[in-house]
Amino acid sequence: MSITLITGATSGIGLALASKLAKQGSELILTGRRGERLDKIKTELSQNAKIHTFTFDVSSRKAVEKFLEASKELLPRVSVLVNNAGLALGADKLQEANIDDWETMIDTNVKGLLYMTRGIVPYMVKANNGHVVNIGSVAGRWVYGGGSVYSATKFAVRAISEALRVDLLGTNIRVSNIEPGMLETEFSLVRFRDPARAKKVYEGVTPLQPEDIADTIQWVLSRPPHVNIQEIVIFPTAQAAIANIHRRTS
Ligand code: NDP
Ligand code: 8X3
User: Model-level pTM greater than 0.85?
Assistant: First the structure.
């Protein structure tokens, strides 16, 4: 049986997708840094599906290498890699922003995604079968004030997705880049480290929910083998462009 590997499955999009696929009986490898959450999720989802969990930080090359070694019996069966683990930190102007935050975003969103892809895709090439789904962002297509480095990481995700398609041309491996707009998860809490500020992001708006993106990914995965959905931009109806948001006043 083939396996779907989802990075960042402890909350948000990753968890919603894991729950959806587990209900259908898919075998899953779920990863994240918060081991206790992974244990709990494993217990919950194991009712219907075989779940493997691995606790590690995708931004650490050594940790990814350790994971690849520890899971090497499973990896030949991985047919779907969802590179979802990622984050934004801060929303300050570039000239005022925290450089440590930049390092973390670049190391996680770009280098972490690359380490995982480099580790898993060779197995897919060997099997001549597979699908890499990268979670980009509307911030990978358009910029906004205070989002320069986060945007840069998601522009990189788009570049990597497109270039990987070229590198894999002639194989049966597909690559898709999913680019959500405003989406209510732990993302803003992580970004602002302040629950009140995080809540404000979604004030007066009906944002996307992680299940909306999980539905989309499931649709992308279920296209026939000759169809590669390259890229999907998904905004909530109340967001017409990255910084053009309609907020209800009452
Ligand atoms: P959440 O914060 O809810 O989920 C992020 C997930 O990534 C968590 O499971 C977290 O797990 C994991 N993660 C973060 N850093 C690392 C790391 N270094 N190593 C391993 N796992 C990590 O946010 P979302 O579900 O919203 O985010 C998922 C993806 O969607 C991200 O790539 C984000 O950039 C993208 N996105 C989000 C949007 C939004 O508005 N929410 C819009 C567009 C794209 P743990 O903390 O346990 O490690
Ligand atoms: C998250 C969307 O607009 O907060 O990727 O950057 S945004």
Answer: yes
All structural domains of the chain, each given as residue ranges with its CATH number in brackets, are: 3-245 (3.40.50.720)
Ligand 1 neighbours by CB, cut-off 6 Å: 7-14, 32-34, 57-59, 84-87, 108, 112, 135, 137, 180, 182-183, 185-187, 190, 210
- Residue position matching structure tokens 């986060």: 150
Q: What is the mean pLDDT of residues 178-206?
A: 97
pLDDT in tens, 117-144: 999 999 999 999 999 999 999 999 999 9
Residue of 150, 151, 185 to mutate, ligand 2, most atoms within 8 A of C-beta: 150
Q: Please list the alpha-helical segments (H only) found in 107-243.
A: 113-127, 148-167, 187-192, 195-201, 210-221
DSSP annotation of 116: H
Active site residue 144: no
